[in-house]
Amino acid sequence: MKTMFPDEEPKIGVVIPSYKVTRHILNVIAEIGPEVTRIYVIDDCCPDKSGDFVETNNTDKRVRVLRHTVNQGVGGAVMTGYQAAIADGVSIIVKVDGDGQMDPSLIGSFVAPIALGEADYTKGNRFFDLEEIGAMPPMRLFGNAVLSLMTKISSGYWDLFDPTNGYTAIHADVAKHLPFKKISQRYFFETDMLFRLNTLKAVVIDVPMNAKYADEVSNLKISKIVGEFLFKHARNFIKRIFYNYYLRDLSIASVELPLGLFLLFSGCGFGIYHWINAARSHITTPTGTIMLAALSILMGTQLILPLLSYDIGNAPRRPLHMKLGMRNRFLHKRDNSVRPEKL
Asked: What pTM does this model have?
């Protein structure tokens, strides 16, 4: 397999957030293949002292335990792992949970698209194989479907699914440009990562996988995070539209959106106002008033729909790490070139 790395063998690191997973984490580590150079176990202030547990019982010399004195959530743990891997010169960083739901033998499937220069970030998709979906708990199936739609809208990656899937891989050159302190630290971490990657114009693709459900306990309660997710998705959507269509670039979509929203909401407001007044006066709303409101609503909708189509087709296509790699090679070549001596 021809990779995009000069040495043909990318240095792979695996990050494992550790919180109440002492029953499974040693098996997870044992199943990680020899293609991985370093393994980072982040003890996220675990009450079970999983960091000490791993150091006492693990024999794999690739393992390095990192500790948080304050619980930071999965996002904070992964960011700590990313920074440690970058400092160690890792090329591709894979994130695997320590609860045994993710098959470590799939690491190569997540790394390959990045190593081949096809993607900057890969994530798992448990919905690819329709035969396996029946094994997923119904509530989790429904919750993921709803969250996937919300994530498509807020992140701009319309061709992705299963946004809460935590099996991921990222090129280190792209990870370096992430705002580590701003990324959501807890359950919104995976979806917030997609928003951040879109603002970087990173290429993200899904990797088909099957999840394993055994005796692990999930701390994610859909009913408790719906409100928080709705707010954060709305916030990220507004930020993304502003960054991509006004701050960094201007296009016809930049004009269609405000004009379409103005016509849509003004038409709705105008129509509702006159409908309420007519109802209070016990008179029929004039046909012209109805047509004016309807026309405004239709025109607004017609302007917003092309924007939606444009946004769907505007997903990043050229991997960011390829651009960064070309720039770095050019600068390196320039710095090492022979300069003519001054006469």
From this structure: 0.84
